[in-house]
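User: Hi! I have a protein structure encoded as tokens and I'd like to know what sequence might fold into it. I'm fairly new to this, so please keep things simple.
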């Protein structure tokens, strides 16, 4: 580690972060965090952002286990909720977005 990095390193903060994340699933359920990380500019230019809740909701209606595995659990975790469906998550996100403006 460089001296600059060593000076910035906070071992207790690293331990606290580890313990806060310990037991969190990793893999498919982490997929959403690597893809949707900003409010805009996450999708290929041909796909509008408004398609996400619709596409995710269709997948959820076809196979809830797949949607939970790939994105619903991750979105719930990011939103600080548990067990919400895609339409419920979209409504919650819209509600939170309104309070931020």
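Assistant: Happy to help. Inverse folding works backwards from shape to sequence: for each of the 101 positions I chose a residue that suits the local structure. Here it is:
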């Amino acid at each position: 580690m460089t001296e600059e990095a060593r000076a910035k390193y906070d071992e207790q903060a690293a331990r606290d972060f580890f313990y806060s994340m310990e037991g969190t699933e990793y893999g498919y359920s982490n997929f959403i965090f690597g893809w949707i990380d900003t409010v805009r500019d996450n999708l290929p230019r041909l796909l509008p952002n408004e398609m996400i809740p619709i596409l995710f909701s269709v997948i959820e209606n076809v196979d809830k286990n797949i949607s939970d595995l790939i994105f619903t659990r991750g979105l719930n975790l990011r939103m600080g909720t548990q067990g919400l469906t895609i339409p419920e998550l979209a409504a919650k996100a819209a509600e939170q977005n309104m309070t931020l403006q």
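A useful reference point when you look it over: The helical segments are 3-8, 11-21, 31-35, 51-62, 64-79, 86-100. Feel free to ask if any position seems puzzling.
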